[in-house]
Each structure stands twice: as structure tokens, then as C-alpha cells.
Write a structure and sequence with these properties.
Length: 173
């Protein structure tokens, strides 16, 4: 698994937001539709259907859905973080009232694709090994998961693939 480096990228996402520990509240595990992230996707799906005419016009990449995990400063103490699910948009003049816009900072990313059932280990290896070995560090405390319709078939399907964007910058000397 050799990551691809994406230079100078900005993501403009429109979607729904959750803040907290998505696995604690309902005592649900990761990678399940019953935890808070799964419920967030369900809520977002309903809004996509409700506002489909508008969203079809501004969706910059209709084949993809995005999930961002953003760790605020207090994450280490609280284990609570932001989860944003949504679509990438090219126009933000009009948005549904129930949705939010998040413009992520311009930065470089490493992009890697994993299978759903192996993703946690592979991504941790990137953080622990590949990033420092290649003289990079995280540029921001978040990561992005991208779900492409033609390669993601659900959590239970071992053939499902997820793209991961990890924001990076060169190690400062």
C-alpha cells in the first residue's frame, strides 16, 4: 500500500455534524450502522432525498460521500470529536437550513485505499510508520474517508473499499 501524495487540495463539504463519542452513547462498536456515525449518515441520507434538486446542482463529485473525523484540542481528555458526513460542493450560495458547510484548509494529503475490514490497522500503520519515515507530519488534526458508489458496497461486504485522505506537511527542520 503506497500512498499517493495530493498537493494543495481544499475540500468544501456540505453535510451534517455530530460532536461527541460516537461509540459510547449507545455502547455500539466501530464500523456499524447503529452507532452515532451510522445514525448521522441515515439523517444525512434523508436530507439528500429531501433536497435532491438543489444538491444535484451543487454536488462537485456525485459519485462520492465523505466522512471527516476532526479532533479538537480537548480530544485526548474527553475522547469526543466532530464527525462530518456530506458531499463535496462547488457552490455554497444556497444550502439547506438543516445542513452545514465546512471548508477544510488548503493542504497536502496522502491518499490511500483500503478494504473496510483492514482499514484500522493500515491507517494506523500510516500514522506510525509511513508518515514519519517519509519526513511528514500531520498538518491538521482530522482525516477524511471517501466512499465511492462503485467501490463501496456496505460495511458487511469485504470487497468494499474506502479512500482515506490524511492531511500532511513536511517535517519542519
Amino acid at each position: 500500500m503506497e500512498p499517493i501524495i495530493i498537493k494543495n487540495r481544499v475540500f468544501r463539504l456540505l453535510g451534517c455534524v455530530y460532536y461527541g463519542d460516537p461509540f459510547h452513547f449507545h455502547s455500539k462498536k466501530e464500523w456499524t450502522y447503529e452507532n452515532e456515525i451510522g445514525l448521522l449518515w441515515k439523517r444525512f441520507g434523508g436530507l439528500i432525498r429531501k433536497y435532491s434538486i438543489l444538491l444535484d446542482k451543487i454536488n462537485a463529485n456525485p459519485e462520492f460521500g465523505y466522512e471527516v473525523h476532526l479532533e479538537p484540542e480537548e480530544y485526548r481528555e474527553t475522547k469526543q470529536y466532530y464527525v462530518i458526513v456530506g458531499i463535496e460542493v462547488n457552490n455554497i450560495e444556497e444550502i439547506p437550513l438543516e445542513m452545514f458547510i465546512k471548508i477544510l484548509p488548503r493542504t497536502d494529503y496522502i491518499l490511500v485505499t483500503t478494504k473496510v475490514n483492514s482499514s484500522n490497522t493500515e491507517i494506523q500503520d500510516l500514522y506510525d510508520e509511513w508518515i514519519p519515515k517519509n519526513n511528514y507530519q500531520n498538518s491538521y488534526p482530522y482525516l477524511i474517508q471517501a466512499y465511492e458508489q462503485k467501490r463501496y458496497f456496505g460495511l458487511e461486504n469485504p470487497a468494499s473499499e474506502i479512500d482515506w485522505y490524511i492531511p500532511i506537511k513536511p517535517v519542519e527542520k
